[in-house]
Amino acid sequence: VQLLTDSHFNRHVFPPPPARYGGRHTVTLIPGDGIGPELANHVRELFWFCCVPVDFELVNVDSSLTAEDDINNAIMSIRRNGVALKGNLETNHNLPPSYKSRNNLLRTSLDLYANVMHCQSLPGVKTRHRNIDIMIIRENTEGEYSSLEHESVPGVVECLKIITRVNSLRIADFAFQTARQNGRRRITAVHKANIMKLGDGLFLECCKEVASGYPDIAFDTLIVDNATMQLVSRPQQFDMMLMPNLYGNVVSNVCAGLVGGPGLVPGANHGEHYALFEAGTRNTGRSIANRNSANPTAMLLASCLLLDHLKLPAYAHMIRRATLSTVTETRMHTADLGGQASTSDVIKSIRNAIQSTGPLTQSI
Amino acid sequence: MLIARSSSPLHFDMTAVMQTVTLIPGDGIGPEISTAVMRIFEAAQVPIQWDERNVTAIQGPGGNWMIPPNTKESMDRNKIGLKGPLKTPVAAGHPSMNLLLRKTFDLYANVRPCMSIEGYKTPYTDVDLVTIRENTEGEYSGIEHVIVDGVVQSIKLITEDASERIAKYAFEYAVNNQRSSVTAVHKANIMRMSDGLFLRKCREAAENYKDIKFTEMYLDTVCLNMVQDPTQFDVLVMPNLYGDILSDLCAGLIGGLGVTPSGNIGTNGVAIFESVHGTAPDIAGADLANPTALLLSAVMMLRHMGLHAHAQRIQTACFNTIQDKRVLTKDLGGNAKCSEFTAAICERVQDLD
């Protein structure tokens, strides 16, 4: 099996803050809700076990409070540390619009404009489709997620979807550079420009403009409904997909479902100055919280992406290899993958895998 | 006292009454698949007569585009229509014909039942769900502005009336078609006011249908779960854009647009059933087209009209022909002609009588 490559990440964002005194990095950790806290603990314990030179600054965000102090503290911490790992923060959508989604606030305040998710079929995970390898680049700050709504007349609500040239060029450039660095041959832009002629039309125009500067990478476009139809019938045809915010939400969830579910795929959010890592499909997992049954794979792989970003590839490789071998070779599966194992069983198996490969620390 | 029995039964056989349905064959492969449907209906002795009309955009006195008045008058009279694919010319100066039809008859609900076809194998089996999509507003209101150079805003419109109407229709559909649950699909965590309004209207409608189970689910969660286990879904109701994406996603689960039926419900009892695939100009006139999508839409139409026995017979004949695999059109994996496939279904329908 070809494992997810270690040098998974692009170099064109600003490098992370260098290691501080003692050669250790400080990373903001936001446990979140649902299964977040238990998985955050597992990451911390595994990092301690592996002697990873990372100290976590724990910032709790209480999503039930309407005041924004908690989330502002988190943002300040991430500005200070430059990197963060987080669980999903629940949004009570019955509260009035003044209460904004905490996750979205983080992304927009820190201008984490690119969301990257790599969906790969794993041997040993039973799915209907095989040989999927799709990288999804999703614009993360504007589009339908602009949260600009108003009730112009009682009973009539308008919600604004904003597409700008600057952000579209930026995300397209990010996509093409990432494609080049990861050996991707083709980018498919997903849109609905036949209906939203100006909005998605602008997005497409920007993508085509950037594409012309990368003649080594093929570029084509696909309407979003056709894209989802193709994904469920023949997902192997896609290499890298690039799209605005909402379609990105749909496509990334479809792809995650195709390769085995929310427990397997990590996600990264990149901005010029900051990086935030999380489980790719951003689920809270409220119904399985505190039952020791959540799948820790996505969160652990996200922590490996974090280590790659901090330029600690040896640790990243060690943890990633152990995590993936637990899923693909040992086949210690939690309930979401059809197995009977508990979270702690999986963690134990990962620790065994790490210990069996040699010394706990490796020189960098 | 003796009660004499009348020699003739007093009950009136409703199915013997002929109903007229407006038929719009459409472009490309439209005419040949419409002919196929007409032949199958004749073989099944369905009490329907067809009123064939065409739909080309004409400019009215005020300068606005409209459908031909005799087609409009036919639909208003017959109330039920069956439509083949219409081509959307790129630079014709007039809006798409589908959009014109939608606006003329206020077709507010798009209904797509997605059921796995035994014999047409896809990675997904046992799919049996219905997507009900609000068809008039939402993200497809077509209102866009360039604010300043390089910044575009598209407006998504959600109104109380349209949301109430579609929610009510969804529950009515669930009751009339023996479905047990309705799920509202939304993204109210991000679009609090607009999807929040939609959700509120769905919740209000749910109050009047206590027998139907009502749930709410985020769009991304629906997508995630749909590709892993589509059997957990029953009836889904949602605004325009999510409906567009999800209905095509579900069509992909059962085998694509070539086998998916669709119905559009309007105000004043108007309903137009259609195939949602394209006009396939490359095979038009070559007797190669697959009439399944239009046929299943016609079956949906029969159910809507209350002709359940005929609907069931034709559907069974169609599915059995596909399952049998001997006579299949090219897109279904065979090499039979459209007319041969149609003849096979006609034969089966007559045998099922």
Brief digest:
Chain A: Belongs to the isocitrate and isopropylmalate dehydrogenases family. The complex is a heterodimer of chains A (364) and B (353). By secondary structure, chain A is an alpha/beta fold.
What does this structure look like?
The complex is a heterodimer of chains A (364) and B (353). Chain A is α/β, with parallel strands linked by helices. Chain A is 37% helix and 21% strand. In chain A, strands 2-1-3-12-11-4-5-10-8-9 form a ten-stranded mixed β-sheet, sandwiched between helices. Chain A has a two-stranded antiparallel ribbon with strand order 6-7. In chain A, strand 1, helix 1 and strand 2 (54-58) form a beta-alpha-beta unit. In chain A, helix 4 (165-181) packs across helix 5, helix 6 runs parallel beside helix 7 and helix 8 (297-309) runs antiparallel to helix 9 (313-328). Chain B is of the alpha/beta class. Chain B is 39% helix and 23% strand. In chain B, helix 1 (30-43) crosses helix 8, helix 6 (219-228) runs parallel beside helix 7 (240-254) and helix 8 (292-304) runs antiparallel to helix 9. Chain B has helices at residues 30-43, 69-78, 97-105, 160-176, 192-207, 219-228, 240-254, 292-304, 308-324, 338-352; strands at residues 19-24, 48-52, 58-59, 65-66, 80-83, 107-115, 128-134, 138-148, 151-159, 181-186, 213-218, 235-238, 261-266, 271-275. At the A-B interface, strand 6, strand 7, helix 5, helix 6 and helix 7 of A face strand 8, strand 9, helix 5, helix 6 and helix 7 of B. Strand 7 of chain A pairs antiparallel with strand 9 of chain B.
